Amino acid sequence: MTYGSFSLVEVFADKLISWGARHLYMCYLRPFFLRHQAKVDLVVGSAYGEMVKLITAYQAEIQPVRSLFTKIMASADLILRGEATSVQPQSPKGRQE
Q1: What's the predicted TM-score (pTM) here?
Q2: What is the DSSP code (8-state) at residue 93?
Q3: DSSP per residue over 44-91, as a string?
Q4: pLDDT tens-place string over residues 31-48
């Protein structure tokens, strides 16, 4: 009974949100972007150029972070697929427990 109620509410909420998003886009966002297309293109192009300069200038600092992020994402993918193996932490050399 509860699941059916939530499913029914979800269907109506989905329709309402979909209609609202479409209405907001068609009535407000699309006309705004059409009126200001040249300015928006200029801002996006400028932001893109600045990002390219920033990434180029800090390439040496970005690469280790990118490598770490890639390793984290690969580990997360293995965990989500259930393929990860359990690794026990090792105590530092020279320390006895």
Answers
A1: 0.47
A2: T
A3: HHHHHHHHHHHHHHTHHHHHHHHHHHHHHHHHHHHHHHT-----PPPP
A4: 999 999 999 999 999 999
